[in-house]
Design a protein that fits this description.
Elements lengths: L5 H5 L6 E2 L4 H6 L5 E6 L5 E4 L9 E4 L6 H16 L2 E6 L5 H7 L17 E5 L5 H20 L9 E4 L11 H9 L5 E7 L7 H5 L3 E4 L5 H11 L3 H8 L6 E6 L5 E9 L7 E6 L3 E6 H12 L3 H8 L4 E3 H10 L4 H11 L3 H22 L1
Parallel strand pairs: 1-11, 4-8, 4-9, 5-6, 5-7, 7-8, 12-14
Antiparallel strand pairs: 2-3, 2-11, 9-10, 10-11, 12-13
Length: 370
Amino acid sequence: MTMLTSNEISRFMCMPFVQEPDNDDVLNLHETGVFIGNSQKFNMPVFINPENTLNPHMLICGMTGGGKTFLARSIVARLHVFLGANIIVVDFTGEYAQVMSNLSTCPTNNISGMFGESIGIFYSDLHGLKERQKIMAASNMLDEIADLMRSREYGFKRRLFILLDEAWKLVENNKGLEAIIREGRKYGIGLITSSQLLHDTNSNILSNMATLFIFKTTSKSSLERLAKSYNLSDKELLSIQNLDLGGCFLIQLNKSGSRSAFQIRKVIGINESELFGIKSGANMEIKIEKERLYAIIESLCGIQKLEIIEKLSESKSVDLTKLISLMIMYGAERAAVLKEIKKMGFTDHDIADSFSIALNVIDNAKQEDR
């Protein structure tokens, strides 16, 4: 079987540029996509969805201090919180320790656990090791991921993203990394990585990235490679050179055959301090932004939301059974509650147990009122 890169595929496809995301497409992605920021021209909210791109791989590039790490943290957090994706972070510098701690109180200690149905995070903090040890540890993890990936059933149940950051350069000759880049798409596995200079990015990495975030860069060689690889105009290259701090340029190769390129005014990160935990039994806790949780409660319970929110505001987490009980007792339809709980990423087993207990609690409360 012949493997074609995105660059090779693009030669046979008509891929017009879309300078701004279509209004309807943008708004329809709010439940299935990851919010990045607002577009420069029309101030439209911009969402990315790995289901719509040629492959799920992402590259973040630009000068130091431009916002690469901030964007990477935000992307993995939102992929996990909103799309229920499993996350593996290989951290060479310790920059991701805080966000990983905020996202999961029960991190998985086994990479193989990332290939099941349950939602989880595997975090490997290598920053305390010597350089040679870091490379060896990361290489072994990538090999293990590739082996597990190939044994995974085609038609995956839960997406998996690997954040490697700029450390990919230290393990670029690793066979596991190459397999993930070339074959990850069909197994639902995406690589998120970054680079300061695009011109020294491995061609195998660049040619297999369907989503590219570019922060400010004035490197002539990097700009030339961008122009050649993505057919950017002089005006677009000038926009990249003049980006404000926190702003970026987004290029995507889409499954539809189109290729979009437009400017994002400023990356808007997830507010980690505003994450709220929902616990299921003793083994699982899913983090969700308070704003999103309150929006769900309002859509299901209307004006009664205030009483529920008041009860939840006393702590930073709630038991799933209690949340279900509160929403149903304050007017939410059971089917609607079930639909929203499933979106959060809980397993069918956890949902069934929590619903069973919640309904018993509600029945007992009704009998006491009589």
